[in-house]
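Table S2 (continued). Query chain:
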Amino acid sequence: MDKRKIKIIKNGPYKITGKVPLREKIIVPKGNQYEYRDGKELPDTDGYLLCRCGHSKKHPFCDGAHSKIKFDGTETASKKPFKERAEILEGPGINLLDDGRCAYARFCHRNDGDAWELTEESHDEHLREEAIIAAKECPAGRLLAVTKNNEDIEPELEPSIEILQDEELNVSGPIYVKGYIPIESADGEVYEVRNRQTLCRCGKSKIKPFCDLAHVNANFKDNNSDDKKH
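Corresponding output:
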């Protein structure tokens, strides 16, 4: 079996190899928080191509539309490691690192406040645990909770890819890459391998290949977004 990897094709799709499980997940509100619901089933194959331009008629898969529209998929995201880019919010019980790469999945919001508010109130044990959950559930990896002993707190995630749909906003979200799957740029350089990252699939992000919530502003909907399981 090939090693799991995502290869970015110049001005083309994401090429996934190594039998990475592919699922669709729907973001749904639950009180002041959010959770996932299973979406439609997607085929399991050893390798597949995922659309990056946003114009495929076979979402989430590539159908060659990038060539027809002359898609400019130039990668503009910084390749500096997360901790060199992130700002630090020091709380009394925990610290929060934030690199600003937001996919607007809203899992950073909890019933008792958002990740930043909870970090500032982390002297309280319950609120500290809530701050940790808020950071761990950020699919973009924008947020990382760090103990006062400087230990990173990451969830245990199996390598997989999830195609996100957003029921509340009625848009199609990014590609959630889980479990330290390497992402190789079109020029052959590998981005920092991380546990949680979201890749743009609407084609409009300003920090390609990563999501910057452009799908929300663009009201991006793939052709599967109206066929969700309830």
